[in-house]
Amino acid sequence: MTENAFVAPEKMIKNVFDLNPWYFSKAYEEYLAFLHRLNDSVIGVHTTADLRCNELVIDFIEMLDGLEKWIDEIPLEEISEQRFGNKAFRHFYEKLCKEAPELLKNVLPSNTHDALIELVPYFTESFGNSTRIDYGSGHEANFLIFIFCLQKLGVFNDHDNQVLVLRIFNKYLRVCRHLQTKFKMEPAGSRGVHAIDDFQFAPFIFGSAQLIGSKSLVPDSYLKSTVVEANAHISLFLDAVNFINQTKTGPFHEHSNQLWNISAVPHWKKVNSGMFKMYEGEVLKKFPVVQHLMFGSLFSFERTEHIKESSEDISQISRDDSMPPVCQMPPRAPAQHGMFAFQIPAAANSSTVRSATVVESGDLRKLHTEKHPEERCPPPMPEP
């Protein structure tokens, strides 16, 4: 790319009607394909696998290690009335914004320095918001977009995908967890027990791929804290569950209800595919999350050339101001309805469920263990 090709990224999703252009943008298509490539590269690969790291990868990890040392150096402020958000985080973020250009210059090849105008905003946005002192899956997405842009620039290629996930992204998780615990950062847009996790999402995608084919660990295994603790080092999924166990109290099915439900899935391949559907539905298609995304030349808001002809364009749907905003969002494809779709067990009376014999995962485990009277049978999915 030429020098003039790079532009300061801007926010383009300003209302719910911008969601449709986002869904059909080059950025959406390329980013999702990027996540699938990362995911496929770590199928059956343990976090502790012997991976070749070049000097660039080592420099990146050392740079992130330097950020983690900043956290220890910043003293906390007194907050007697606040449950979340120690204002000392703002000192970390101020230092990050000030030094980010130089940090990235030191690790990136000189021929990519012209792209810093686009790269720096994604990088600084990856560690949380200094005004709200919060962190969530949108910030995590910014780091993955940052890596995506580097790969698009040729800094990394597909041969580096395993290292990007299990070394660089893994180190990024360590830094963010350190930030979360020290500064008591608030979960950004948390849905409480209805969310898979207060802060992260991608570790559950990549980590479930790592466990595909495992003969000793099945999805139900992560309900046992001793098993999780003993195997957290081999999978980002189990590592994330282990962090939850260390930071939350009470019964697992109460504080992490979605993860408890998902543990009923019979194998990791199904969990992995369900995680992608959930990521699209709960992150990439949620206005409160994607309204903060920024777009430039590398992560482009331009319309993709590969349009799904069968997809319905929301611009052709008349607006009904009486409907809540969620009804004005792009309709999900049948395969993306909710998080996970499962066949209703024989124990449930499905005679009145018409041809759509799938359910949401809310009461999945109960369906597998109890007989439900007809009036408690879960409602069917709407016909596509």
Level-2 CATH architecture of the largest domain: Up-down Bundle
Query: Order of strands side by side in the largest beta sheet?
Result: 1-4
Low-confidence stretches: 309-339, 341-378
Portion in helices? 40-55%
| CATH C-level of the largest domain | Mainly Alpha
E-strand count: 6
Number of alpha- plus pi-helical segments: 15
Please indicate the count of domains.
Answer: 2
The average pLDDT is 81
- β-sheet strand percentage: under 5%
Structural description of this entry:
This protein is 45% helix and 3% strand. By secondary structure, the chain is mainly alpha-helical. It has 2 domains: 12-295, Up-down Bundle (Four Helix Bundle (Hemerythrin (Met), subunit A)), CATH 1.20.120; 341-384, no CATH class. The chain is globular and about 50 Å long. The two termini are 43 Å apart. Mean pLDDT is 81; it is low at 309-339 and 341-378.
Précis, in short:
This protein is mainly alpha-helical and 384 residues long.
Task: Reconstruct the topology from this structure.
Elements: E1 10-11, H1 19-23, H2 26-41, H3 55-73, H4 89-107, H5 116-124, E2 134-135, H6 137-152, H7 161-183, E3 186-187, H8 202-210, H9 225-231, H10 236-247, H11 252-255, H12 257-262, H13 268-284, H14 287-290, E4 294-295, E5 342-343, E6 358-359, H15 364-369
Parallel strand pairs: 2-3
Antiparallel strand pairs: 1-4, 5-6
Helix pairs in contact: 2-7, 3-4, 3-7, 4-5, 5-6, 8-10, 8-13, 9-10
